[in-house]
C-alpha cells in the first residue's frame, strides 16, 4: 500500500501553500488539494523537493491519501467558501476525522460548524493562525480550538511547525469549539490598537516635535531595544525609513492616509459590546481607521479651525521622545489589559477554560503582535491566576504609575496642538475611570430614574429604589 499523508491542506493560495510547505519541511507527508488543479501542480513543481507531498486532484483522491484519523486543513476565504468546502469533504469522512479551519473565521461560525460536525461524528477545529505569509512558512503562532481529543492528534503537528520562543512552541490548545478563533479575533483587535498607538506616536513626534520620518525611524529603532521591543515597532522603523523611489519622498508621505480593514478588528469591538467589556482602546483604533477612510466627511471638514500654537521647543522638546515612549507603553498596557479581559469574558460566556498566561506565551513568537512585553503578561498571570486586570499586577502597575506624568503631558501637548490621539486619550480615560473612587455614573442613574423610572441602588442599603420625581417632596420608594 502506498504511503499515506499525516495531514492534508485544501486551498493552496499563499497561506495554504506556505502552511503545507512548512509541514512538509518538518518531515510530515502532506496531501494537497485545491479547487483548480493548477495550483496543486505548481506547488509540487516549485517546492516538491522540500518534503513529501501527495497531490490530489479530486476530493475523493485527497481523502483517500490521508491516514486516519484524517486531518484536513482548510485554508479558504472565510464565510460561504468555508461552508462549501466543509460540505464537499464531510460526507467523505469517517467517525473521528478532523476538519481544521485555519482562516480568520468568526468564532460564532466556528461554534455553529463545530456543533453540526460533532453531530455527524467529526471533529471541527477552528484555529487562529497569525504571522502572515512568512509566519505560515517559517513558524506562525497557532491558536487551535475544538475538542481535546482532536488536539491529541493535531497538536504535535501544529506545535512542530509553530514558531518557538525559548524552545517552547507558540501553539497551545485554547479551548473548546470557537475558543481558538475568538482568541485570534482578540489578537487582531489588540493588533489594531497597537498599530494605532504606534501611528499616534509617529504623528506626535512629527507634528509636535518636528522630527522627519527618517529620524522617527531611528527613535523607533532605539525603542525596539527596550521594553517596547516588538515586531510592530521593528517594521514601523523600516516603513518610516523607506523612501519612495519615484518621488524621492518618504514612503509614508506618498501613501493615501486612509487605513483599510478586513474586519477582524470590527468583530472584536462588536463582540466587546455584546459582552459588555470596555475595550475602548481597540474600539478607538477601529474608529480611527473608519475616520481616516471617511473621505467626503474629511473633505467637508478640511479647514475647520484649530489651535494656533507653536510646536514644542526648549526643555519640552528635549524630553518629548521619552515622554511619548512612556505614553505609548502605558497605553499599550491598557490595550492588552482590555483584550485579556475580553478573552476572560468570552471564556465565561461560552464556557471555555482559557489559560491567559499561555495565550500570552504563544503570542511571544510568530504572530503580528509578538513582543518581549508578552513575557511580562505571562509572568503576571503566573503570579496571580485570577488577576482582574493587568493594570493591577505588580510590574505593570508600577510601570504605568511611573509613566503617567509623561502620558498626561503628551496628551496635553496633543490637545494643545490639535493633534488627534484617540488611542492615547481613551487609554488614559480608561485608566482614570478604573482607578476612580466614584464615577459620575451615579448621576446617570439619577437621570435614568428621573425620566424613565429605571430605579437605582444605594450605597448605604441593599435593594432597588425609585424617587417620585413628580411629587413635591420627591419621596423615595422601594422598587
Ligand atoms: C495575522 C494578521 C492577519 C491579517 C489581518 C488583519 O495575525 O497574521 O492579523 O490575520 O493581517 O487580516 O488585516 P486587516 O488590517 O486588513 O483587518
From TrEMBL:
Similarity-based family: Belongs to the 6-phosphogluconate dehydrogenase family.
Protein keywords: Gluconate utilization, NADP, Oxidoreductase, Pentose shunt
Annotated binding of substrate, by residue: 104, 130-132, 187-188, 192, 262, 289, 448, 454
Assembly with partners or alone: Homodimer.
Highest rank taxon of the organism: Bacteria
Residues that, per the record, bind NADP(+): 11-16, 34-36, 76-78, 104
Annotated pathway: Carbohydrate degradation; pentose phosphate pathway; D-ribulose 5-phosphate from D-glucose 6-phosphate (oxidative stage): step 3/3
Any GO BP annotation: D-gluconate metabolic process
Function: Catalyzes the oxidative decarboxylation of 6-phosphogluconate to ribulose 5-phosphate and CO(2), with concomitant reduction of NADP to NADPH.
Catalytic reaction(s) noted: 6-phospho-D-gluconate + NADP(+) = D-ribulose 5-phosphate + CO2 + NADPH
PANTHER family named among the record's database cross-references: 6-PHOSPHOGLUCONATE DEHYDROGENASE
Record domain 6-phosphogluconate dehydrogenase C-terminal: where: 180-470
Protein name: 6-phosphogluconate dehydrogenase, decarboxylating
SUPFAM superfamilies documented for this protein: 6-phosphogluconate dehydrogenase C-terminal domain-like (SSF48179), NAD(P)-binding Rossmann-fold domains (SSF51735)
MF terms (GO), sorted A to Z: NADP binding; phosphogluconate dehydrogenase (decarboxylating) activity
Native source species: Amycolatopsis panacis
InterPro entries hit by this protein: 6-PGluconate_DH-like_C_sf, 6PGD_dom2, 6PGDH_C, 6PGDH_Gnd/GntZ, 6PGDH_NADP-bd, 6PGdom_BS, NAD(P)-bd_dom_sf, Pgluconate_DH
EC number: 1.1.1.44
Top-tier EC class: oxidoreductase
A Pfam short name: 6PGD
Active site: 184, 191
Amino acid at each position: 500500500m502506498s504511503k499515506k499523508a499525516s495531514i492534508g491542506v485544501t486551498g493552496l493560495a499563499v497561506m495554504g501553500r506556505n502552511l503545507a510547505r512548512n509541514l512538509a519541511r518538518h518531515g510530515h507527508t502532506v496531501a494537497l488539494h485545491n479547487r483548480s488543479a493548477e495550483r496543486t501542480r505548481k506547488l509540487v513543481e516549485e517546492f516538491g523537493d522540500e518534503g513529501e507531498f501527495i497531490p490530489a486532484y479530486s476530493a475523493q483522491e485527497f481523502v483517500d491519501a490521508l491516514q486516519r484519523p484524517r486531518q484536513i486543513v482548510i485554508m479558504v476565504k472565510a464565510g460561504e467558501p468555508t461552508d462549501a468546502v466543509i460540505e464537499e469533504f464531510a460526507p467523505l469522512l469517517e467517525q473521528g476525522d478532523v476538519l481544521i479551519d485555519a482562516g480568520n473565521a468568526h468564532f460564532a461560525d466556528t461554534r455553529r460548524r463545530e456543533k453540526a460536525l460533532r453531530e455527524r461524528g467529526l471533529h471541527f477545529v477552528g484555529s487562529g493562525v497569525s504571522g502572515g505569509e512568512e509566519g505560515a512558512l517559517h513558524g506562525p503562532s497557532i491558536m487551535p480550538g475544538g475538542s481535546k481529543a482532536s488536539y491529541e492528534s493535531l497538536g504535535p503537528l501544529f506545535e512542530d511547525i509553530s514558531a518557538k520562543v525559548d524552545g517552547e512552541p507558540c501553539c497551545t490548545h485554547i479551548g473548546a469549539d470557537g475558543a481558538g478563533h475568538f482568541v485570534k479575533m482578540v489578537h487582531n483587535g489588540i493588533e489594531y490598537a497597537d498599530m494605532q498607538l504606534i501611528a499616534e506616536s509617529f504623528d506626535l513626534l512629527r507634528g509636535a516635535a518636528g522630527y522627519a520620518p527618517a529620524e522617527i525611524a531611528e527613535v523607533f529603532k532605539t525603542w525596539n531595544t527596550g521594553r517596547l521591543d516588538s515586531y510592530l515597532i521593528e517594521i514601523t522603523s523600516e516603513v518610516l525609513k523607506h523612501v519612495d523611489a519615484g518621488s524621492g519622498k518618504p514612503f509614508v508621505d506618498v501613501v493615501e492616509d486612509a487605513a483599510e480593514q478586513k474586519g477582524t478588528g470590527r468583530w472584536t469591538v462588536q463582540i466587546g459590546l455584546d459582552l459588555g467589556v470596555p475595550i475602548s482602546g481597540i474600539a478607538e483604533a477601529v474608529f480611527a481607521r473608519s475616520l481616516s477612510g471617511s473621505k467626503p466627511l474629511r473633505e467637508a471638514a478640511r479647514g475647520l479651525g484649530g489651535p494656533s500654537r507653536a510646536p514644542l521647543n526648549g526643555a519640552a522638546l528635549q524630553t518629548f521622545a521619552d515622554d511619548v515612549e512612556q505614553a505609548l507603553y502605558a497605553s499599550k498596557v491598557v490595550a492588552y489589559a482590555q483584550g485579556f479581559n475580553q478573552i476572560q469574558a468570552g471564556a465565561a460566556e461560552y464556557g471555555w477554560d482559557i489559560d491567559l498566561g499561555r495565550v500570552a506565551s504563544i503570542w511571544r513568537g510568530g504572530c503580528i503582535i509578538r513582543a518581549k512585553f508578552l513575557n511580562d503578561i505571562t509572568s503576571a498571570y503566573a503570579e496571580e491566576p485570577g488577576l482582574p486586570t493587568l493594570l493591577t499586577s505588580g510590574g505593570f502597575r508600577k510601570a504605568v504609575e511611573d509613566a503617567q506624568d509623561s502620558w498626561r503631558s503628551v496628551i496635553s501637548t496633543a490637545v494643545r496642538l490639535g493633534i488627534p490621539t484617540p488611542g492615547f486619550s481613551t487609554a488614559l480615560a480608561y485608566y482614570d475611570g478604573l482607578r476612580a473612587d466614584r464615577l459620575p455614573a451615579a448621576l446617570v442613574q439619577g437621570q435614568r430614574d428621573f425620566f424613565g423610572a429605571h430605579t437605582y441602588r444605594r450605597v448605604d442599603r441593599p435593594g432597588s429604589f425609585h424617587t417620585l420625581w413628580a411629587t413635591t417632596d420627591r419621596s423615595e420608594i422601594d422598587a
